[in-house]
From TrEMBL:
<feature type="region of interest" description="Disordered">
    <location>
        <begin position="176"/>
        <end position="200"/>
    </location>
</feature>
<feature type="domain" description="Guanylate cyclase">
    <location>
        <begin position="10"/>
        <end position="124"/>
    </location>
</feature>
<dbReference type="InterPro" id="IPR001054">
    <property type="entry name" value="A/G_cyclase"/>
</dbReference>
<feature type="transmembrane region" description="Helical">
    <location>
        <begin position="227"/>
        <end position="244"/>
    </location>
</feature>
<dbReference type="GO" id="GO:0004016">
    <property type="term" value="F:adenylate cyclase activity"/>
</dbReference>
<dbReference type="GO" id="GO:0006171">
    <property type="term" value="P:cAMP biosynthetic process"/>
</dbReference>
<dbReference type="GO" id="GO:0035556">
    <property type="term" value="P:intracellular signal transduction"/>
</dbReference>
<protein>
    <submittedName>
        <fullName>Adenylate cyclase</fullName>
    </submittedName>
</protein>
<keyword id="KW-1133">Transmembrane helix</keyword>
<keyword id="KW-0812">Transmembrane</keyword>
<dbReference type="InterPro" id="IPR050697">
    <property type="entry name" value="Adenylyl/Guanylyl_Cyclase_3/4"/>
</dbReference>
<dbReference type="InterPro" id="IPR029787">
    <property type="entry name" value="Nucleotide_cyclase"/>
</dbReference>
<keyword id="KW-0472">Membrane</keyword>
<dbReference type="Pfam" id="PF00211">
    <property type="entry name" value="Guanylate_cyc"/>
</dbReference>
Length: 283
């Protein structure tokens, strides 16, 4: 039996957020817009020396020999599509989620397989609408080569992938730049308050809190309505508890119990759905 060929490459997986909802609202318009957006993606892929491996439904798999070109192509795609979407009503916007991984691929003809593809597909599922998610291997290659900003989102464990994967989001929409250096104030010492241990600690705490809030907000936005409703009701009872009784008497979990149970059930069902292996690519 002939062994499959292997090569190291960057893989981009992209799909349309809420595609079923768009199709339900307007099939003809959605298909027409999908074809137009894919044409844009095809042109940008060619410009960055990529190869479209496969498309099925609303999804696209693209292979790049250069990880830098892969990330720059993804940024160009999201920026161009955001410009197109800005001209549309909110209900007609077509936003792609993109995941990029650098890994070892199994090659059979024009198709590619293996963990390198699977991780890219899982990263795409984590990406927000119009966003880009990178694996640790991609981030390590591009962080000093592209004038982009990144947010570390921690280690993620994926189904059928043996090791946890470090994840990073690319800053887009006005945040697409590295962290700016803080100006040095005038004065004899030439030091700012952040140079002291307390100032550095406060700055780190504030940055961590901001990152945690943004991550929680993005997670909340990606959840289905039933999950958001459960979270909202739990939060409502918690705030009501604090306003009426303070922290000395916590009772909010009693009226929240049905919503907590429903939330756990919905999250478990969602996790089981995502555990289904990524589709195999075909001609």
């Amino acid at each position: 039996m002939q062994r499959a060929k292997r090569r190291l490459a960057a893989v981009m997986c992209a799909d349309v957020a809420h595609y079923s909802r768009l199709m339900e609202r307007d099939e003809d318009g959605t298909l027409s817009r999908l074809r137009a957006y894919r044409s844009i993606m095809s042109g940008l892929t060619e410009r960055h020396n990529g190869r479209i491996v496969n498309t099925w439904g609303d999804a696209v798999i693209i292979e790049f020999s250069s990880v830098v070109e892969a990330v720059q192509c993804a940024v160009d795609i999201q920026n161009e599509l955001a410009h197109k979407n800005a001209e549309l009503p909110e209900t007609e916007k077509m936003e792609f989620r993109i995941g990029i991984n650098l890994g070892d691929l199994m090659v059979e003809g024009d198709d590619i397989y293996g963990d390198g593809v699977n991780v890219a597909a899982r990263l795409q599922e984590l990406a927000p609408r119009g966003g880009i998610m990178l694996s640790q291997s991609v981030f390590d290659q591009v962080r000093s080569k592209l004038a982009l900003g990144f947010d570390a989102l921690g280690q993620k464990t994926f189904k059928n992938v043996s090791e946890p994967v470090g994840t990073y989001s690319v800053r887009l929409g006005g945040r697409n730049a590295p962290e700016a250096a803080q100006p040095v104030p005038d004065g004899a010492s030439g030091k700012s308050d952040n140079d002291s241990p307390y100032g550095m600690r406060d700055a780190n705490v504030a940055k961590t809190a901001k990152g945690g809030f943004e991550q929680a907000r993005d997670w909340f936005k990606r959840q289905p309505r039933r999950v958001r409703s459960c979270v909202f009701m739990i939060g409502f009872f918690f705030v009501l508890n604090i306003l009426t009784s303070g922290l000395s008497s916590l009772w909010f979990y009693w009226p929240s119990l049905p919503f907590i149970v429903a939330l756990i059930w919905h999250l478990m069902m969602s996790r089981n759905e995502k555990a289904v292996p990524a589709p195999r690519t075909t001609d």
